Amino acid sequence: MSDVLLKAENVGIRFGGLQALEALNLTVHDKELCCIIGPNGAGKSTFLNVLTGTLRPTSGSVRFLGHDIAGLPLHRIARLGIARKFQIPSIFPSLSVEDNLKVARWGVPSPVRPVGELMELVALTDRAATLAGELAHGQKQWLEIGMALAIEPRLLLLDEPTAGMTPQETLATAEMLLRLKGEFSIVAVEHDIRFVRALNCETLVLHQGRRLRSGPFHEIETDEMVRDVYLGRR
Amino acid sequence: MIARDRNWLLIFAVCVALAIVYPLFADGYKLTVIRDALIFGLFAASLDFFWGRTGILCFGHAAFFGIGGYIMALITLNDAIPFGSLLGIAGAVTGAAFVAAIIGYFLFFGGIRGSYFTIVTLAMGVICQQAAVSWSSVTGGDSGLIGIPPIAFDLGGLHVDLSQDLPSYIFVAAIAAVVVLALWSISRGRWGMVLTAIQDNEVRAAALGHNAPLRLLVTFVLSAAIAGLAGALYVCMAGLVAPDLSGLLLSTEVIVWVAVGGRGTLLGPVLGAIFIQRAQQTISSFNPSLWPLLLGCVFVVIVFVLPDGILSIYARVKSLFKGRRRAR
Fold first, then answer.
1. Coil, strand or helix: which one is A67?
2. Between A138 and which of A29, A169, B94, B111 could a Cys-Cys bridge form, CB atoms 3.0 to 4.6 Å apart?
3. ipTM (interface pTM)
4. How far A151 CA lies from chain B's nearest CA (Å)?
């Protein structure tokens, strides 16, 4: 894999006296799937905010397809091909499921997937006319993933996509992402180890804002230090 | 077509039919009363287009009404300018839109939203009114400008002269109907849906590629342009323009018209403006000091009893009948 899509080099960010991230590197290749895991406060969401250009790093750089995206307006970042799913379901509650996906498609000049296909992908076809605000929590998460897919991303960034989901919904979400694997790059920040195990992909483990380990999940899972710090011992 | 759109079109058609037959039963005075109320209705629809679709309240909307009025007055009172009425209308619309574009640019792209936006626009209204008072060499100061001629122009062999009551009523009613219908079409289409999305969650909309500040700005500018048009029409019908037309009182009244009529419905604010104007005239003829007290009470009652405005009565009655039919 030689096509580098996203390259974060030596990224550090400081909030006053707190060094939230320090010397982090991440390279995401085209159509690659990877996960970022770590305990609470490890800096996962902060790192994702830096990767999406929402936060400007104090040191280092983030480049997407060669562009420095730090500080760019959100809509321009989206139009470059970066879609994001937020940690808290972020949808349009007063619009129907179908209209949410329509609005999402209109965000880019030439969307490819029709709304019907998007609804099928996120298993919401039978809820097309339902107001998005009335959906169950897990369905809201899926709808947001569908909205992110609607803009035909080159890179999909997911911030805790399974937060608040039942175990069945979590596995269904993992299966959904595995079906999409190979169409574009996916970076998922996740807390739920069952989900990461189901994806079984390249994984970066963060601890206190620093890289603890990185590699394929089956190696990470058995790493002594990762087990000590995050996964725990059985 | 969904039921909500069908209902709106039905009410719109009824209103247009009433507007058409009204001159058959009304004398000249009553026609001018409704004509002026329709102009204020158009003004209310312009505020509703912005407030109703974006959820952001502009508390200085009369500034655009006043700017339109003053530009119209200055152009039509200058005999050296040919096609005064047409140029006046064009200038009023453009001038109001231009001011909205300047103010809106800094507010929307500066991330000013919600109550902060409302406060800044309130200040804008106060500044406009004060400018109209202080810049007396141009605006006529406190007493304003008088002697503004009625709209008259020739267009492709068609001679339009609105000095008489009936032609001016027809002209205003036609413009109000066309503008409200156009705004409704915009609101229910793609543009309106994206605005609803921005109102729901602006960050999400931006993260999907929508340039939210630009969309809000364009909507604000269009809303101001229509307010400017209403201002231009009003001063030609009234024959005068004064600082009050851009003042805080009118900015407050238009908010009441929109809230009473039904925010986000476009047609409701027009009906709200007509209803309140008529009520004001009727009640003031008995007791001039009673009106503000009654208006306040009516506003509070409607906000509690009909939070979606008087236009929602139709939907409520319809659902009541449906419920009874189901119960049988």
1. strand
2. A169
3. 0.91
4. 7
Mutation for A interface: B5, B195, B201, B204, most A CBs within 10 A: B204
The encoded tokens of residue B278 equal 């008529």
All residue ranges of chain B with pLDDT < 70 are 1, 328
| CA nearest to A88 within chain B | B204
pLDDT of residue A71: 82
Report chain A residues whose CB lies below 8 A from the CB of B111.
Answer: none
| Pair of tokens at residue A127 | 């809820």
pLDDT score at A233? 60
Interchain proximity B201–A92, CB inside 8 Å: yes
Q: Helix B62-76 and helix B212-238: axis angle, to 10°?
A: 50
Which pLDDT score is estimated for A98? Answer: 97
Q: Does B110 touch chain A (CB under 8 A)?
A: no
Distance from C-alpha of A191 to C-alpha of A196, rounded to nearest angstrom = 8
Q: Which helix (H) or strand (E) holds B209?
A: none
**SS3 track for B67-132:** HHHHHHHHHHCCCCCCCHHHHHHHHHHHHHHHHHHHHHHHHHHCCCCHHHHHHHHHHHHHHHHHHH
What pLDDT digit, counting tens, does each position of A37-72 carry?
Answer: 998 889 999 999 999 888 999 999 999 998 898 888
Nearest to B169 by CA among B303, B319, B322, B39: B39
Three-state SS annotation for B262-314: CCCCCHHHHHHHHHHHHHHHHHHHHCCCHHHHHHHHHHHHHHHHCCCCCCHHH
Region of B311 on the Ramachandran plot (φ > 0 left; ψ -120 to 50 alpha; else beta): alpha
